[in-house]
Amino acid sequence: MRRPYQVLFLCTGNSARSIFAEAILGRLGAGRFAAHSAGSHPKGAIHPETLVVLEEHGHDATGLRSKSWDEFARSGAPLLDFVFTVCDDAAGEVCPVWPGQPITAHWGVPDPAAYEGPPAEQRWEFRRTYQLLERRIELFTALSFESLDRLALQTRLREIGKS
Length: 163
Known about the structure:
The longest helix has 24 residues, at 119-142. The chain has 4 helices and 4 strands. The N and C termini lie far apart (31 Å). The chain is α/β, with parallel strands linked by helices. It has one domain: Response regulator (Rossmann fold), CATH 3.40.50. Helix 1 (17-28) crosses helix 3 and helix 2 (48-56) packs across helix 3 (119-142).
């Protein structure tokens, strides 16, 4: 049996988007994927609204934490198969670039933590972000990795990022 695919979700603060993705893949891909998240400039804490949305969807947030992507460049870090950036380049964020051989794709999502408006609207932004990432991860986990070559897989992952 093949080892689980190691997947890293990257964003800037690692307090909302990449945390959502880690939790979602952790559930949808249990046994087949090992999910991780990190940030280029981690906030050091998960945004409180992220935790609310995770709880609403039945996720256990135990073990989730805001951390630097440097942890995955160290000796002994998991050998990554996939790296997804979920930062929103349209908002002018700087997305980290991951060196090495994992298959990469950009799945840009606006940062709900950066939303400036009434609290009810911000809560809606967090829920919308969760749903968008959940749909993309559903499509990702449904792929037949064994029947796709690296180029075809890369193309499919980029298409998912545009959905």
